[in-house]
């Protein structure tokens, strides 16, 4: 059967595969479009498997909040380069998965990967995206909140940092301001009670040793440690932090009568060991 340009174009629109790959698929399946899609998917899976060992530390953090601001999601999906993260297909995949999480409330990543969107498992969508985009795609983590008050989010630098915050209530502006504060100042807790005891003890020990190294009298060291811990709380507790948009106010001041119930801050690629690429060597190797 003769393979026409129109057949190739139609298959490409359906699959997102390259023109030559579509032509090969149609030729291999004697022009059967349905069989050609399977052929491409099989080849795509093969390509995706070869990419499984690569390090995916780029990508984006995305947020989704329902119209009533009662359900919200923060999700990180990784790829290998920031160029691929700007791909419209990558962005569409991330938006689709975020909405799916909001609607289905999977208990963890395994449950999310096993769940289905339009009849296809999420894990298969990730594999297909790896083949289509040409880089390893990895669904890394997510958080989903349900709120009796108000949810707000903030995405910084196109997905380098993402924040989801649950408040007892307040305006859209307040929610955005608090989310921006969390993105910028990276608090570890809402207030002093949320700072882990072991972290406080570690900071006390550091402060005590600093005071001793500075030659402070033993009788005042305890007061010095106490003072430095109070300063530490102002740096890491959201409610005590100086508001980034107004240095005369703290977050507690701008909250008024509202409270922050919980928050999550994802920084893209944190904790992932990035591979250092020698692109000149790579190009040379490919040419040889």
Please describe what this structure looks like.
The protein has twelve helices and eight strands. With 288 residues, it is of the alpha+beta class. The longest helix is centred in the last third of the chain and has 19 residues, at 218-236. The protein starts with a helix and ends with a helix. The protein has helices at 5-15, 19-28, 33-50, 82-85, 88-104, 109-114, 122-133, 172-185, 197-213, 218-236, 251-255, 279-287, and strands at 58-65, 71-79, 116-117, 120-121, 138-146, 150-156, 161-167, 260-267. The chain has three domains: 5-50, Ubiquitin-associated (UBA) domain (Helicase, Ruva Protein, domain 3), CATH 1.10.8.10; 58-178 and 256-268, Tetrahydropterin Synthase, Chain A (2-Layer Sandwich); 193-252, GTP Cyclohydrolase I, Chain A, domain 1. Residues 282-288 have low confidence and may be disordered.
The shape is: elongated
The strand count comes to 8
Output the strand order for the largest sheet.
1-2-5
Largest sheet: 3 strands, antiparallel
CATH architecture of the largest domain: 2-Layer Sandwich
Pfam families: EF_TS
Keywords: Cytoplasm, Elongation factor, Protein biosynthesis
Subcellular location: Cytoplasm
GO cellular component, one term: cytoplasm
Lay out the secondary structure.
Layout: H1 5-15, H2 19-28, H3 33-50, E1 58-65, E2 71-79, H4 82-85, H5 88-104, H6 109-114, E3 116-117, E4 120-121, H7 122-133, E5 138-146, E6 150-156, E7 161-167, H8 172-185, H9 197-213, H10 218-236, H11 251-255, E8 260-267, H12 279-287
Antiparallel strand pairs: 1-2, 2-5, 3-4, 6-7, 7-8
Helix pairs in contact: 1-2, 1-3, 2-3, 3-7, 5-7, 9-10
């Amino acid at each position: 059967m003769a393979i026409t340009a129109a057949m190739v174009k139609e298959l490409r629109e359906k699959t997102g595969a390259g023109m030559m790959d579509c032509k090969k698929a149609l030729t291999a399946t004697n022009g059967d479009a349905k069989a050609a899609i399977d052929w491409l998917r099989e080849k795509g899976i093969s390509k995706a498997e070869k990419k499984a060992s690569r390090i995916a530390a780029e990508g984006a953090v995305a947020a989704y909040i329902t119209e009533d601001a009662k359900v919200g999601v923060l999700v990180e999906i990784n790829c290998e380069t920031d160029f691929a993260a700007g791909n419209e297909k990558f962005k569409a995949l991330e938006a689709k998965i975020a909405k799916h999480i909001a609607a289905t409330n999977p208990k963890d990543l395994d449950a999310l990967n096993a769940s289905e969107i339009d009849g296809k498992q999420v894990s298969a969508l990730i594999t297909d995206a790896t083949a289509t985009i040409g880089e390893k795609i990895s669904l890394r983590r997510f958080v989903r909140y349900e709120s009796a008050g108000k949810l707000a989010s903030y995405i910084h630098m196109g997905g380098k940092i993402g924040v989801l915050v649950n408040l007892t209530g307040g305006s859209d502006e307040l929610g955005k301001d608090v989310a921006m504060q969390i993105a910028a100042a990276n608090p570890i807790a809402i207030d002093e009670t949320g700072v882990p005891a072991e972290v406080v003890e570690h900071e006390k020990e550091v402060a005590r040793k600093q005071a001793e190294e500075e030659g402070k009298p033993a009788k005042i060291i305890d007061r010095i440690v106490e003072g430095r811990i109070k300063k530490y709380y102002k740096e890491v507790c959201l409610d005590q932090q100086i508001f980034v948009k107004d240095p005369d106010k703290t977050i507690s001041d701008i909250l008024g009568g509202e409270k922050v119930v919980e928050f999550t801050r994802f920084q893209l690629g944190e904790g992932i060991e990035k591979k250092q690429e020698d692109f000149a060597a790579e190009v040379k190797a490919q040419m040889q």
